[in-house]
Amino acid sequence: MTTAIAAKKKILLVDDEAAIVHSLRYNLEKNGYAVATAGDGRTAVTLAQTEHPDLVVLDIMLPLLDGIEACKEIRRSSTVPIIMLTAKDQEFDKVLALELGADDYVTKPFSLGEIMARIKARLRRVEVDAEERDESITAGDITIDPSRQRLVVRGREVSLAPKEFRLLNVLMENRGRIVTRQMLLEKVWGYDFEGEHQTISVHIRWLREKIEVDPNNPRHIITIRSRGYMFRE
């Protein structure tokens, strides 16, 4: 069944076996994908740069430039998902392909159902990653970007330790609401944390020193006596 999402996606299919190209192209187009094809590695690299595909299906055994080298070339300028195909079921090829930047690996012969499922899964992963990249939070003059582990305070990038970053992220996700100490322990340190609540106080102090104009009179991270903390814009 053709979907609106699939119809917008372009697949670059690279294989020198005409039967495989014909079969895969037919099924991809039937499912609403646009398809570009290449029969050698050098053409594949060129098309990856000019066609801007959403995903590349790339055979390892190719003329002019093999799939491993083509993958390496494509990776120099693109993060497009790459699924490698090969008739050789050798661990060396698999490891090398993944180390060079391939996202998945399918050994021939494969079923159409398997390759279609792998393609859909990889495209969905890209969509999820894009959604996560859009989850940055801005509150007042502070912006936190969890996917990039980046914090900007009053226009200046600030470095935080992992626990500090996670603590601030939880507070900002719940801005305007009281976050209890127990909730912070569970979300930042884990359910099995055996330390003391004083650990939170220490990390809160460190955070205030890094993000507040006056750490002794905090504007953003407010203590709610006997209950927890609240992040205010």
Write structural notes for this entry:
- This protein has helices at 4-7, 18-30, 41-50, 67-75, 91-99, 112-133, 162-173, 181-189, 198-211; strands at 10-14, 34-38, 55-59, 82-86, 104-107, 137-139, 142-145, 150-153, 156-157, 178-180, 221-224, 228-231.
- The chain contains nine helices and twelve strands.
- Strand 1 (10-14), helix 2 and strand 2 form a beta-alpha-beta unit.
- The strands form three sheets. It has a five-stranded parallel β-sheet with strand order 2-1-3-4-5, sandwiched between helices.
- It is elongated, with a radius of gyration of 25 Å.
- It is 44% helix and 21% strand.
- It has 233 residues and is α/β, with parallel strands linked by helices.
Give a brief description.
The protein is an alpha/beta fold. The chain is built from nine helices and twelve strands. The chain has a five-stranded parallel β-sheet, sandwiched between helices.
